[in-house]
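Researcher: For the annotation table, I need structure tokens for Oxalyl-CoA decarboxylase. Please keep the output clean. Sequence:
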Amino acid sequence: MADVLEIRPQESAEENAQQMTDGFHLVIDALKANDIDTIFGLVGIPITDLARLAQAEGMRFIGFRHEQHAGNAAAIAGYMTQKPGICLTVSAPGFLNGLTALANATTNCFPMILISGSSEREIVDLQQGDYEEMDQLNAAKPYAKAAYRVLHAEDIGIGVARAIRAAVSGRPGGVYLDLPAKLLSQTIDAVKAKQSLVRVIDAAPRQLPAPDSVKRAIDLLKGAKRPLVLLGKGAAYSQADKEIRAFIEKTGIPYLPMSMAKGLLPDTHEQSASAARSFVLAESDVVVLVGARLNWLLSHGKGKTWGKPKQFVQIDISAQEMDSNVAIAAPIVGDIGSCVASLLDQVGDNFPQPPKEWLDAVNEKKNKNLEKMAATLAKSPSPMNFHSALRVLRDIVKQNPDINVVNEGANTLDYARAIIDMYQPRKRFDSGTWGVMGIGMGFAIGAAVTSGKQVLAIEGDSAFGFSGMELETICRYQLPVCTVIFNNNGVYRGTDVNPTGGKDVAPTVFVKDARYDKMIEAFGGIGYNVTTPEELEKALKEAIASGKPTLINAVIDEAAGTESGRLTNLNPQSAAMKK
């Protein structure tokens, strides 16, 4: 009997030990409970074990060389899936590196969650000098849609749930979740831990528009003489592809896609007015904004760009966005899918089509510009310029319409946006609302991991410099990313000179004839150096056929670029010098 009594306490202790869990596992369980299966990040104190355990529990962890690019990957994954992408960083400097991506996600309305380890509150608040001590929560607040800190293990489930709902509901954005080191090692009864998990129900509920707002918009459109639909990336994010296409085709209204909305309808669609962009913006009288904001990308809805007076219909999930730059005659507040469906319900068989004079004028301008562009693209100067190189990329994308295109730079971005047609939605990713450089490799990795499909990253040599080390990440995970660098030896171009005659090169000039293709070869990838359109086409076809990490160093005439692409006016000194 005594022997039995001695054994039972030991068994009981073992059973109790098996019933405990900790903060590390709870974070993972909370993410998995909400169908999140991938984390982008960079390990270090205090989150290394969190990454290890996530992988051991079946989650995918994609490790980067810099937190900003991990954050960009998470953000573009969120844009593609409508689920928040997760970026995991260490404390203080790692958090700050990720903060740029968080701010960019918030500005662009990409749902992502930046999760960072941090120092203990009691040390931070007394400023006692902890390892990488920083008040990260308050630092994040101005740049995030929401920011939360979890101090107790039993609140992890709620913290993750709140972050998820904040990231995707209403206008999506970046959310910061602060996890102090002590939290991760906290233990908690396993049964209570499981009960504390929250599966978010209907994280982004539909927001139906008011019927009178829909009627107001329809009445305005019925009286329009020169209507235009303008699609923003919010329209692409909404995944209301069928409703948007039906509305455009049923009304017969010409449409103009912003760069990340390209492919929502094929750019070759007969109603596309992309090739007549300046004309339709200036001449239209009623413009329907679908998930597009009248920010700097659209000249704030005023000035010479917009020409003749016009009235706006604006569809946006945020009422606060209305009248932000100009008066909105017919605001429609709600989720894009519901709003467009409501408009479509009011577009009967007798809905007036746009006047023939307007459609003929748009088509005439479009065809004239397309003919001019075709003549420019047909030229084959030596060395290559942006147009002759992009002609090859345009044809490759046409042959592979499901390819993901990442694009950044000054001239590289501006010309590619106008030349390369897209055929499917949510396939084009670029610098977006903030116009930031450095999104290239992060977006490329995020798109490749999320879709499993080929990515073509079209990079200016300057833009590539911000994230080029992530080539190692691409090679490490053997991702199907082909990076094409338009190498003209500098920022904008490589021909500037130091006016003093000193030994330092001009501020915009890089090392002449750099061989970026050698960088990817150092990590086991495939590099190409090309100087003609024929060589570029051959390399692209081989790269895509291989499905392996590749980089093409496309040598461009160093004098081919222009200052800031088409945004010279934003650089006051340069603009003044050109007057």
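Researcher: And a one-line annotation?
Model: Confidence is low (pLDDT under 50) at residues 1-11, 575-579.
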